[in-house]
Design a protein that fits this description.
Strand order of the largest sheet: 11-10-9-12-8-1-6-7-13
CATH superfamily: HUPs
Strand content: 25-35%
CATH architecture: 3-Layer(aba) Sandwich
Low-confidence stretches: none
Helix content: 10-25%
Largest sheet: 9 strands, mixed
Mean pLDDT: 89
Distance between the termini: 58 Å
Structural class: alpha/beta
Number of domains: 1
Number of strands: 13
């Protein structure tokens, strides 16, 4: 079995700051990590004993995330890096990744549910649409293929779950409940730097440049900002009835009710 795993290198959001003048993320000096949901996707692919290819789109420094994936056990890594990809929204990103995946032989594609620096949960489903294959999102459990070539997955819902049987090739998006990602293997850490990471540019993936980068991105962000810190709360010591009346009064003052 051959599985492609889509990875994204993202800022460690515990340390992200917003430039108050430009409204953009301050990335200088901020450590980068593999997007957490993508790590769950990678772990599941590795646990299935498949031949695993990891693929990412980003600047040259995204190679670090791919090296980490190789150290975890991935067999091959591909980096899509080109100035033509710059400024890509989710749609342009999905066009680029789908173009690259078309060049590969695969039975299944794994992606994380969403990236912590965007939280859109759009790229995985869009890749599936471009490739014309079925997709299952919010996957919390994967069972092996049956005799008919179908894979059974359990998909998380807000109030429960549903079990879906789907025929490969298929794209699955992983959530953190799917598994616990493994640590990097010591032997693989030593070996991962001797492995070649395949570098593809915009010409290599066979996608119309009008669909890539800023030119292929219909999304326009008007403004970004950091979440304002909450003010200090008020502690009120009263009887149950008095406390309830006081809370209602405060809510009315603020026109919440």
């Amino acid at each position: 079995m051959k599985i492609v795993v889509c990875l994204k290198q993202v800022p460690d959001t515990t340390e992200v700051k917003i430039d108050p003048k430009t409204g953009t993320l301050i990335r200088d000096g901020v450590p980068s990590i593999i997007n957490p949901d993508d790590k769950n996707a990678l772990e599941e692919a590795l646990a299935m004993g498949a031949e695993v290819t990891v693929i990412s789109m980003g600047p040259p420094q995204a190679e670090k995330a791919l090296r980490e994936a190789l150290a975890m056990g991935a067999d091959r890594a591909i980096l899509l890096s080109d100035r033509a990809f710059g400024g890509a929204d989710t749609l342009a990103t999905s066009h680029a990744l789908a173009g690259a995946i078309r060049k590969l032989d695969y039975d299944m594609i794994f992606a994380g549910r969403q990236a912590i620096d965007g939280d859109t949960a759009q790229v995985g489903p869009e890749i599936a649409e471009h490739l014309g294959i079925p997709q299952v999102t919010y996957v919390e459990k994967v069972e092996c293929f049956d005799e008919e070539g179908n894979v059974k997955v359990r998909r998380a819902l807000e109030d429960g779950y549903e079990v879906i049987s789907v025929k490969a090739p298929v794209l699955l998006t992983a959530i953190k409940e799917l598994n616990k990602p493994r640590y990097m293997n010591m032997a693989n850490i030593s070996n991962c730097y001797s492995k070649e990471i395949t570098l593809w540019n915009a010409d290599d993936i066979g996608v119309d440049r009008a669909l890539l980068g800023l030119a292929g991105s219909p999304t326009k962000v008007k403004k970004s900002g950091a979440k304002e810190a909450k003010g200090q709360g008020e502690i009120v010591i009263k009887s149950y009835k008095e406390a309830a009346d006081y809370a209602v009064m405060k809510l009315k003052e603020k026109h919440y009710i």
